[in-house]
């Protein structure tokens, strides 16, 4: 089994977020990016939120995320 190159999983999550148009959950990102851990998904979402590209709608397990319009 070969490891993914550095940054490939982060790029996959960011690309999945970019493709979405409606609010999405972390579970939907897990389905779109098999092989990426929930911790990695949360880290990417945190980075995207800090950059002002996404916002969180709600808290906890059922929280939804949404892209911020440019």
What is the C-alpha radius of gyration, as a whole number of Å?
A: 12 Å
Distance between the termini: 39 Å
Biggest sheet descriptor: 2 strands, antiparallel
Q: Count of DSSP E strands?
A: 2
Q: Indicate the mean pLDDT.
A: 91
Which segments are poorly predicted (pLDDT under 50) over 5 or more consecutive residues?
none
- N to C succession of SSEs: HHHEE
SS-based structural class?
alpha+beta
User: Total helix count?
Assistant: 3
If strands are numbered along the chain, what order do they take across the biggest sheet? 1-2
Beta content comes to 5-15%
Shape: globular
| DSSP helix fraction | 40-55%
Short description:
With 70 residues, the chain is an alpha+beta fold. It is 46% helix and 11% strand.
Task: Describe the protein's architecture and organization.
It is a single chain. The chain is an alpha+beta fold. 46% of the residues lie in helices and 11% in strands. The protein has 3 helices and 2 strands. It has helices spanning 8-19, 26-32, 38-50; strands at residues 54-57, 64-67. A two-stranded antiparallel ribbon has the order 1-2. A hairpin with a 6-residue loop joins strand 1 and strand 2 (64-67). The relative contact order is 0.20. The mean pLDDT is 91.
């Amino acid at each position: 089994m070969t490891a993914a190159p550095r940054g490939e999983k982060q790029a996959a999550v960011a690309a999945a977020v970019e493709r979405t148009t409606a609010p999405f959950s972390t579970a939907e990102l897990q389905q779109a990016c098999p092989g990426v851990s929930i911790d990695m998904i949360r880290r990417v979402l945190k980075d995207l939120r800090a950059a002002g590209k996404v916002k969180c709608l709600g808290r906890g397990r059922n929280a939804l995320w949404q892209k911020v319009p440019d």
